[in-house]
Structure formats: structure tokens, C-alpha cells
Design a protein that fits this description.
The complex is a heterodimer of chains A (about 800) and B (about 300). Chain A folds into three domains: about 180 residues, Aldehyde Oxidoreductase, domain 4, CATH 3.30.365.10; about 200 residues, Aldehyde Oxidoreductase, domain 3; about 375 residues, Aldehyde Oxidoreductase, domain 4. Helix content of chain A is about 25%, strand content about 25%. Chain A is built from 23 helices and 29 strands. In chain A, strand 16 and strand 17 form a beta hairpin. Chain A starts with 19 loop residues before the first helix and ends with a strand. Chain B has about 300 residues and is an alpha+beta fold. Chain B has three domains: about 45 residues, Uridine Diphospho-n-acetylenolpyruvylglucosamine Reductase, domain 2 (2-Layer Sandwich); about 110 residues, Uridine Diphospho-n-acetylenolpyruvylglucosamine Reductase, domain 3 (2-Layer Sandwich); about 120 residues, Enolase-like, domain 1 (2-Layer Sandwich), CATH 3.30.390. In chain B, about 35% of the residues lie in helices and about 25% in strands. Chain B contains eleven helices and 15 strands. In chain B, the strands form four sheets. Chain B has a five-stranded antiparallel sheet, sandwiched between helices. Chain B has a five-stranded mixed sheet with strand order 14-13-12-11-15, with helices on both faces. The chains are: A alpha+beta (about 800), B alpha+beta (about 300). The interface between A and B is medium-sized, with 34 and 29 residues.
Chain lengths: ~800, ~300
């Protein structure tokens, strides 16, 4: 038997994923794999208009189709439900959001009628026969236009403005009065894009009349949030809602906001007499009407710099576009403030932040949610100032980065950056890409008239957030802190079974949770079964459970670790009793009869089956004082947060700050205007790494997503709100042929805020978007062009370079130099 | 989405398929590779009442060299052409086949189906119009041969009568000293090009004896850029004549703005693609083995 001194550490090893075998062989169980007796299928009839009044709805032709069970309209559900909870205070809080349009439609693709039939084909046929008469209204698709309130989406709110707040820290005016130079940037724009999970949204719902409970099998990625909204909406006690998730084919945050469709499916089941209803979203539906990422416009930015190019203050006005309904918003209006200064040291800032509705698909928390828009803005500010002042991009960053010795670093708004070393990441990245050699090649190429640019993007992936930040957007919001639950038990025959309140979508939770428990119990991870996937009945969830926002390594694994420690303590106590020795004489390991606990003094041992047997089925041998030993240990981990100061908008909003630094070398072809990535490096720091293979995979995935967003993927609407990118032919998600070879590097600055030193990761901070914008600007600055948009494809580069329509530095940027 | 209900008919010969078409009337469609039709049906943009499946007709998939021409059976898959040493004897055909959409589409999609569909963005028409190509069309009574230039009439419109189908595509081998290339810019593999250019040149020493230049995705059909051809024909291939051909190609293009790019950009792009295709075609005409692939975003 191995002893504790030579125990093997599983945490930190690139253990192959336990879930791989199942998933790669096509044996995963996804929501659409579930088939039930008497199951019915739901198809939505959706609005072809971006903004219209509903004059009439006729469903009788559809209902007459053989195999159609019923239809459901907004008017019909209205008396049965409450509008969904709005997180915003007034005016946004006055918005009434229902899962089927009531009297108006507010975006193309909004569900108007649900058709429920015996087969999906019949539902599709009948949906074509539903007649909806609309009276078209003027649509507003531009955020700044929307704020003029000429066309109001939600009459009950009286304005399109959802939320406004000023985030001011330090002494901004003093910094500007003392500045050696002030850079003005008229307008920057972060485009609307989304995620394209392989599996679209799926909901199966059954409102069972026998027990008056609602059962869900779905792929929502934040079920504990969804059931809070559904319970209030459906007037059903939350304990009567059961949600189970199984394997999920990607979410990237986008599946958090599937609760409206979940509501319709439950109401449809109720109407259909309790038969289970399945709704499987099509790709076009997903592209037009699931959720998109937030679009943001940055106006009237002023940057104060000292004589060395050190930024001392940034003032700006930010307008966020949340689409037709706020849903998870206006949380995005505060979530960006987890990273107010980005990776930089400036102390003085004033951001006037406004969010508006527009006649577009509602947004959802898309990977990098709300922080990436702000981090992109800061990287644009840094690069524009560097170019205008003639400071090299790397040097500019070194002058402005928070220094390694300053961690833990308190930002101007009270967030505590746990650890990091940005100069070292820059050094590693430069080494991997061959920065100095590329500089020479760039100089030689430029002499030949070629357009080669080198760009750096430094970004943050803040994880495990403090829901107390919701009180900054709404002082009445009843949320704060963060928590996660886990259970660790020895089952009757001695199996170690772990349950976690997460619903992974490819993040490898089964593997990393097993690694953590394996180290606690000193056994092989293969001996540990991990139950992931949400199930309200497992009772391991808290109100924050789900998988989102880069936190499992901290919140999830802290809960697992806590539960395993509790189990270990109980096992030790029980073994000491059985083996008639003291607890500190007990060691954990594996012997001839499997995993066991052994008395060092006598050599006597008891295996896991022996321990579990006593507690579960042989309990008469237990003395009364041991009756509290259950070998079934639930642990709730709570993040050490305080409620932020709502007035000053001050406090720690996130526990860990993973960082990423990418460098790209890009050439823009002068004939085709196609940007080609010649070299690319991604350096990641997520603290202590639990599983290097999983981390590396996440970095590649986030890099692909970001490169796609920067060069290929944009949700485009025309002036009247028609969505022009409803299919993959138009949206063109990134594929293997579009990916450059990515060089990967990493450094580790362990977090003092997590038990293991790990930081949440996976979102990646949208590093490629910042990096590609930077490299393109480097290639084009001499041509009088600055990159003012996060989306740049060959066509937009053509319009900047030849059409002179966009990105004209002379129109967008002015530099005021003070003597 | 699911397609609307339809009747499925499996033809056992091309003749039988033609008979079925004539009996079933306008609501019948042929199913070859299905790579355009099935997605359109699933989106319910196409709603045929009858599908006549050609996939079980024997002897419709082949690549043969006969009498100075390559003959392609109508159901020859793009992937078979991509991997065929015979087809590679006309390198521009390999360029085209190897660059159509992605592996899945190439494994199913057919040359005959693609031509009969006549999608304005299809690849084959752009390439075949630069070569001496004939399309064999089988009707109820007879089989006729249509010159490719006369085959595609308009967007989604061919010379085929309703009860006629493509049975074979015949491409004459270009003369000695001829070389060609096909280059497209595609945002990602599965999508249609933003623009494409096919060039087939025949050289006599440094002089261009003959030139065929066609543009794809910048009009309702593949566009034969006759002024661009004239800019090269009888001329030495120099930077100057290439530039003239490029400009003439841009002038011949008639693009529309869409998600693939603005009209102005497509016009600029197609010129650049013509230039590249000329450069490759010249090298190939001189006997050089040159690998060429599409440009992706």
C-alpha cells in the first residue's frame, strides 16, 4: 500500500478526460436524445417583422391539421403567468417580457404562436397555416438612434433607455488638467456577434397533472437562475420545478437565456393534458432568436497621458445595445466594471454607461460577457494613443501595465486582482513569436509596400463573480456573493460518488473533479464517479449553480474539495474506531482489496466497502456517538465577498483574474484586402493549472472563437431590422480552414483567493479580437487608418482603404499636446 | 425544419427518370447529390411534390478519356473528380472539384446536379465555360448535345426541358501549351465564394494565342470576360497586359452587395483573382506543376 508521503498528485496532470470515451464514440446523452412516451413536438411561429403591432391571429387552420394537438398564443398565456422578473429598476424595470408576443413584436424571430403536434413534421406543416396579421411599425436598430426615443419599443417603460449610471473614480478633472497630452477618440464600436454551439437549444417539459410538478430535461446552462425566473413567471413553487441536464454541446453563455422557451413548453404541456413537449431549436432559429452578444458603442473618449505616455485618466460614454428585451440585462451594465482599468495602472476614470433596447434579438451572456467589450475598448485606447504619440505598442504596455509587485492589486473601483504578471507574459509571448525577427521582416516588407502589422492584446478573464454587483444596477436586487454545492459519498459497496451543481458543456468537469477527490483520498481518479449535469433533486445546487462565467476551477472545485475533505474526516474517524486506533494513525491508500484506510501502528486495514457497509447496512455495530457519520457529505462553498457600496459603485466584484496575452502578425493583401494571419501566439495565465490538457484545449477554443469574431462572424441587420445572417452561409462561423497555427504558452501566478491557487478560465477575455484589431491598425496606421470597429473582414478593410468610408484617423482622433 | 411531405420515386435508369419527370409534371424534381435541393427543402424554400432519385441508376458515375475529351457521368461526385488522375489532366478541373464546399458536400454533390441547378454562385459553370464543354441532355425521345455556352440561360435556368436531364458532361482537352487555373475567395469552406475567376490560356512561346476568362459570383450567371480575354489574346503576358485584363474583368463584373461583400469590393476582388489565375495559368501552360487552392478568410 502506498503511503501518504509518496502520494501522487493528480491535480496538475494532463489526465485524459473521463468523458472523452463516451462523447467521442457518440454515446453522449444530449437533451434531444431523450424520447418519451406520448411526447409532443413544438414549433414556434415567429415574427417576420422587427417591429409590428399584432392585429389578429388565426390558428384554426393549423389546429385542423390531423396530428395537431393544440396551439398557444400570447393572449392565451397572459392570464396564467406573471411577466418575467426584470433585473433593472425603472425605467427598464417597467418592461413587460412574456415568452410569446402579446400585442406587439419587437424583433424578427420573436415567438408569436406555438404549435404542438404529434410529430415535428406535422408541427412544421401546421405552423405554416397560422395566420398572423401585422401592422408594421418603424424599427430602430441603431443604439444611439434608439436613445432618441422616436420609436419606443416598450410603451410601458416610456423610453428605450433600460439603464444609465456613471462610474467615476479618482480625480478625473485634475488628471486632465495636468496631462501632457490628451487624445480624443470620437467613436469606437464593438460589434454584435454570438456563439454557435454545435447543439442548439433543446427543451423537454412536462407539466404533470398527477403531482402538479413541472419536469424539465434541457440544456440550459444556468438552471438555478432559470428556475428562479420560471417559478415567479408560472406561479409555481420552485420546489415543484425539477430540472435535469445531461451532456450539453456547448453554450458559451448563450443558453442561459432559454427560460422563455422553457416557459412556453411547460404551458404547452399543461394545455396538452400533461404530455411531454419537446422543442428542438433549428439553426436558423438559433441564429436569429436565441441570444446574441452585447453590442457597444464608445463615444467621446478622452485620454489623459503624462509626458512618458503613461495614461492617467480615461473618460468616455458607453452605449450598450441589449436588443429587444433585457432578460439577463442590465447585469452587463455593471459586469464590465470587474475590469474597469483592464491590465493598466490608471486611477482616474469616468464612464457614463447607458443601455438601450433596439429591434434586434435579445442579448445573452456571450463568452467574455460585458468585460470583453470594455477590454477591447481599453486596448484600442492604448494602441491609438501609442500610435499617435509614436510609442511602440510593447513599450506603451510596459509603461502602463500593473506591475507584478503590486498584486494583489486594488482597482479604482475596489476590485482586487488576485495575481498576475503581465510583463512576463509579454516576454514569453514575444519569445514564442520571435518579436524582434518579425520587426525586421515587417520593416523589409514595408519597404516593398506590403502591409504587415504586429499587434498585442492583453486581456482578463475575471471569474467567480460577486452577484452583489447586481445591487449596483438595482439597489433592490436580492442577490450577493457566490456559492456552489457538491456532494461526496461512499456508496453502499464502497464506490466514491461525487455530485456537483454544474452543467458542463465541454469543460471536463468529470475529470477535474475526480482529480481533486483523488488527491484528497489518495486513490486513482478512475475509481471516482462524478455526476455532473444539473438535477434539482440531487440537492447539490445553490442559487448560483450552473456553468458560466469562468468559475468552475474555483467555485465548483472548492465545493468538491470541501465535500471530499468532509468525507475524508468521517472515513478517518470511522476507520480509527473500527481499527481501534487514533485518527492520526490512519493513512489512506490502495491495498490488495482496493482503496483502504490503514492503521500505521498495527498494519490492520479496512477497505471502502467495509466502511460503507457499517454505515449503510450494518449500523447496529456503530456506537451512538458515531451516528453523525453518514459518509454522505454535502458541502456548500461560499465566496468571501461583501456587498459592494451601491452609491460609490465600489467593492470587490470578482474572486480571480486569469489573464491572456496574444500577439498576431497579420498581412493585408493590397489586391484582395484579405487579412492573413502570418503568425499567432497565445499565452495564458490561469494560476495553478488543474489539468493542463483541458486548459490548453480551452485556450485554443477561445482563440478560435475570438479570431472568428474579429474577422468572420457578425450578426448583421438591415435598416428595417431584417436579420441578414440567419444561416451559417451568411454568418460563417470560423472553421478549421480559417484557423492559423496557434503557438501556445503559459505562465502560472497562483491565486491567493482560491484554495488550490487556480483561477477560473475558459472565456479567454476575447484576446484575439483585441490582438487582431491591434495588428490591423499597426499595418494601416501609416495609411491614415485606425481600427475603430471590433469586426474587420476583407470588405471592411476595402471600405477603409479604398472607399475611405470608415476608420479615417483624421476624422476620428485628435491629439492635443500641452507644452 | 422538416421538408413538406413529398413522394419519393427511385429511378432504375436515366430513361425511366425522364419518363417519370414527364408523367409527374412540373411538381417533380430530380435528386442527384441533393446538396442544394435538400437544404432548400428543409428550409421549405423548395417544396417539390415528387422527388425522382437518380442515385440508384447504375453507370452514371465515371470519368473517361476518349477521343481527346474527358467524359463525366452526370452523377460523378465532386470528390471523385478531385481524386481522379484522369480529370487532373485538365488541372483547372481539379482546382474546381477540390475547392467545392467541404468534404461532406464533395462526397455527395455531383457535376451533373450542380450544372442543372445553375446556381449563380456555383463553381462548375465558371470553369467549364473557359473550356470546350458540351452537355449531353437526355430527353424522352432523344439525347442531344448542347454547347456549354448555350446551356446556362440565366440564374437557376438551363436549356433543359422539364423532362430532360443531364446525362454526361464532355470536356475537350485543351491543346498543348495551354494552362488554366481557378481561384475563389471564400469566407469559409462550406459557403459559396465571394468571387471567383477561371482562366485558361494557350501560349505560343511568350505570346498568348488564346485566352478564356470567366468570373463567378459577380453576376446572375458565370460571366465570360471577353474584353479581358481580348486584352491578352495575341499579346505577350506582361504586368501591363495582366493589368489590362484585370481592369477589363472588373468592368465586366456585375456584382450585387450581400453578406459576402459589397459590390465595389467584389469588383476589386475579382480583378485580383483574375490576375492570380493568369499567373498560375501561365506557369501551367509552360509545363510547371503548380498546386493551387482557394483563398479563405
Amino acid at each position: 500500500m502506498s503511503s501518504e508521503n509518496n502520494k501522487k498528485n493528480w491535480v496538475g496532470k494532463p489526465l485524459p478526460r473521463k468523458e472523452e470515451d463516451r462523447l467521442l464514440r457518440g454515446r453522449g446523452k444530449f437533451a434531444d436524445d431523450i424520447k418519451m412516451r406520448e411526447m409532443l413536438y413544438l414549433r414556434f411561429v415567429r415574427s417576420p417583422y422587427a417591429h409590428a403591432r399584432i392585429v389578429s391571429i388565426a390558428t384554426s387552420d393549423a389546429e385542423a391539421v390531423a396530428g395537431v394537438v393544440c396551439t398557444l398564443t400570447g393572449a392565451e398565456i397572459l392570464p396564467q403567468v406573471q411577466p418575467f422578473i426584470e433585473i433593472a429598476p425603472e425605467p427598464g424595470g417597467k418592461i413587460k417580457d412574456y415568452p410569446l408576443a402579446i400585442s406587439k413584436v419587437r424583433y424578427q424571430g420573436e415567438p408569436v404562436v406555438a404549435v404542438i403536434a404529434e410529430s415535428p413534421g406535422i408541427a412544421d406543416d401546421a405552423a405554416e397555416l397560422v395566420q398572423v396579421e401585422y401592422e408594421a411599425l418603424d424599427a430602430v436598430v441603431d443604439a444611439e438612434e434608439a436613445l432618441k426615443d422616436a420609436n419606443i419599443l416598450h410603451e410601458e417603460a416610456g423610453t428605450n433607455r433600460v439603464w444609465n449610471g456613471v462610474f467615476e473614480y479618482g480625480d478625473v478633472e485634475k488628471a486632465f488638467s495636468e496631462a501632457a497630452s490628451v487624445v480624443h477618440i470620437d467613436r469606437l464600436h464593438f460589434h454584435r456577434f454570438s456563439s454557435t454551439p454545435l447543439e442548439a437549444n433543446v427543451v423537454i417539459a412536462q407539466w404533470n397533472p398527477k403531482d402538479e410538478r413541472i419536469y424539465y430535461w434541457c440544456n440550459n446552462s444556468f438552471p438555478s437562475f432559470a428556475i428562479q425566473f420560471l417559478s415567479a413567471h408560472l406561479n409555481v413553487h420552485i420546489d415543484r420545478i425539477r430540472v435535469e441536464t445531461s451532456d450539453i454541446g456547448g453554450s458559451f453563455g448563450i443558453k442561459i437565456t432559454s427560460y422563455p422557451q422553457m416557459a412556453v413548453c411547460a404551458l404547452a404541456s399543461k394545455k396538452a393534458g400533461g404530455r411531454p413537449i419537446k422543442w428542438v431549436e433549428t439553426r436558423s432559429e438559433h441564429n436569429t432568436s436565441s441570444a446574441h452578444g452585447n453590442e457597444r458603442t464608445f463615444r467621446d473618449t478622452r485620454v489623459a497621458l503624462d509626458k512618458d505616455g503613461v495614461i492617467t485618466a480615461i473618460a468616455s460614454r458607453h452605449i450598450d445595445d441589449c436588443g429587444a428585451y433585457p432578460r439577463y440585462e442590465p447585469l452587463g451594465c455593471v459586469i464590465w466594471s470587474q475590469v474597469v482599468p483592464g491590465v493598466y495602472r490608471f486611477k482616474n476614470t469616468r464612464i457614463d454607461f447607458t443601455q438601450t433596447v433596439t429591434n434586434k434579438c435579445p442579448v445573452g451572456p456571450n463568452r467574455g460577457y460585458s468585460r470583453m467589450q470594455h477590454l477591447w475598448f481599453l486596448e484600442r485606447v492604448v494602441d491609438i494613443c501609442a500610435h499617435e504619440l509614436g510609442i511602440p505598442a510593447d513599450e506603451m504596455r510596459l509603461r502602463n501595465y500593473i506591475r507584478p509587485e503590486e498584486f494583489p492589486y486594488t482597482t479604482p473601483n475596489g476590485c482586487v486582482y488576485d495575481s498576475g504578471n503581465y510583463p512576463k507574459m509579454l516576454q514569453v509571448a514575444k519569445g514564442l513569436i520571435g518579436w524582434d525577427e518579425w520587426k525586421k521582416k515587417r520593416a523589409a516588407a514595408r519597404k516593398q509596400g506590403r502591409l504587415i502589422g504586429m499587434g498585442i492584446g492583453t486581456t482578463l478573464d475575471s471569474g467567480t463573480n460577486n452577484f452583489g454587483q447586481s445591487q449596483i444596477v438595482n439597489p433592490g436586487a436580492p442577490f450577493s456573493g457566490n456559492s456552489q454545492g457538491a456532494n461526496c459519498k461512499l456508496d453502499i459497496y464502497g464506490e466514491v460518488v461525487v455530485a456537483v451543481g454544474s452543467c458542463p458543456q465541454g469543460q471536463g468537469h468529470e475529470t477535474t473533479a475526480a482529480q481533486v477527490v483523488a488527491d484528497v483520498l489518495n486513490i486513482h481518479p478512475d475509481l471516482i464517479t462524478v455526476r455532473t449535469g444539473f438535477d434539482t433533486e440531487r440537492n447539490v445546487h445553490t442559487g448560483f449553480s450552473g456553468t458560466y462565467a469562468s468559475q468552475f476551477a474555483v467555485s465548483g472545485l472548492s465545493a468538491v474539495h470541501g465535500a471530499a475533505q468532509k468525507l475524508k474526516a468521517e472515513m478517518k474517524r470511522l476507520a480509527a474506531f473500527v481499527l481501534e486506533t487514533k485518527e492520526d494513525d490512519i493513512e489512506f491508500g490502495t491495498g490488495a482489496q482496493g482503496p483502504e484506510l490503514r492503521a500505521k501502528s498495527t498494519g490492520k486495514s479496512i477497505n471502502y466497502w467495509g466502511l460503507a457497509n457499517i454505515v449503510n447496512v450494518n449500523s447496529a455495530v456503530l456506537p451512538v456517538e458515531m451516528h453523525d457519520v453518514t459518509l454522505n457529505c454535502r458541502y456548500i462553498w461560499r465566496a468571501p465577498f461583501k456587498v459592494p457600496d451601491k452609491v460609490k459603485k465600489y467593492g470587490n466584484l470578482t474572486l480571480t483574474y486569469a489573464s491572456q496575452l496574444h500577439i498576431a502578425v497579420i498581412e493585408i493583401d493590397r489586391d484582395t484586402f484579405i487579412p492573413r494571419i502570418l503568425d499567432y501566439v497565445a499565452v495564458d495565465d490561469c494560476g495553478t493549472v488543474i489539468n493542463p490538457a483541458i486548459v490548453e484545449g480551452q485556450v485554443y477554443g477561445a482563440t478560435a472563437h475570438g479570431i472568428g469574431a474579429a474577422l468572420m462572424e457578425s450578426c448583421v441587420y438591415d435598416a428595417v431590422g431584417n436579420m441578414l445572417t440567419s444561416t451559417f452561409s451568411d454568418y460563417t462561423p470560423i472553421t478549421a480552414v480559417n484557423m492559423p497555427k496557434v503557438k501556445y504558452g503559459h505562465i502560472e501566478t497562483p491565486s491567493p483567493h482560491s484554495y488550490s491557487g487556480a483561477k477560473g478560465m475558459g472565456e479567454g477575455g476575447a484576446a484575439p479580437i483585441h490582438t487582431i484589431s491591434a495588428a490591423l491598425q499597426d499595418a494601416l496606421f501609416a495609411e491614415g487608418i485606425i481600427v475603430d470597429d471590433s469586426f474587420n473582414n476583407a470588405d471592411s478593410l476595402f471600405r477603409a482603404m479604398v472607399g475611405k468610408e470608415i476608420g479615417q484617423a483624421a476624422k476620428l482622433v485628435t491629439v492635443e499636446r500641452r507644452p | 425544419m422538416y421538408p413538406r411531405a413529398f413522394h419519393y420515386h427511385r429511378a432504375s435508369s436515366l430513361k425511366e427518370a425522364v419518363t417519370m419527370l414527364s408523367q409527374l409534371g412540373d411538381d417533380a424534381k430530380l435528386l442527384a447529390g441533393g446538396q442544394s435541393l435538400i437544404p432548400l427543402m428543409k428550409l421549405r424554400f423548395a417544396n417539390p411534390q415528387h422527388l425522382v432519385d437518380l442515385n440508384f441508376v447504375p453507370g452514371t458515375s465515371y470519368i473517361k478519356e476518349e477521343g481527346g475529351a474527358l467524359r463525366f457521368g452526370a452523377l460523378t461526385r465532386h470528390a471523385e473528380i478531385e481524386n481522379s488522375a484522369t480529370a487532373a489532366k485538365i488541372p483547372i478541373l481539379h482546382d474546381c472539384a477540390a475547392g467545392i464546399a467541404d468534404v461532406q458536400v464533395r462526397n455527395r454533390g455531383t457535376i451533373g446536379g450542380s450544372l442543372a441547378e445553375a446556381d449563380p454562385s456555383g463553381d462548375w459553370a465558371v470553369v467549364l465555360i473557359t473550356l470546350a464543354t458540351e452537355v449531353r441532355c437526355l430527353g424522352k425521345k432523344s439525347e442531344r448535345t448542347v454547347r456549354f455556352a448555350d446551356f446556362i440561360k440565366d440564374a437557376y435556368t438551363t436549356a433543359l426541358a422539364h423532362d430532360e436531364l443531364v446525362s454526361e458532361v464532355v470536356v475537350k482537352k485543351p491543346p498543348k501549351g495551354s494552362g488554366g487555373a481557378y481561384i475563389a475567395f471564400k469566407r469559409s469552406a462550406p459557403v459559396y465564394p465571394t468571387a471567383s475567376a477561371a482562366v485558361q490560356l494557350t501560349l505560343d512561346g511568350d505570346v498568348c494565342k488564346d485566352a478564356a476568362i470567366a468570373l463567378g459570383c459577380v453576376g446572375l450567371t458565370a460571366i465570360k470576360a471577353r474584353d479581358a480575354e481580348a486584352a491578352l489574346r495575341g499579346q505577350r503576358i506582361t504586368d501591363k497586359t495582366i493589368a489590362a485584363a484585370m481592369e477589363a474583368a472588373r468592368a465586366a463584373a456585375d456584382p450585387q452587395s450581400d453578406m459576402r461583400g459589397s459590390a465595389d469590393y467584389k469588383r476589386a476582388l475579382v480583378g485580383a483573382l483574375v490576375k492570380r489565375a493568369i499567373e498560375i495559368a501561365v506557369r501551367r501552360a509552360r509545363g510547371e506543376q503548380v498546386e493551387v487552392g482557394h483563398i479563405y478568410a
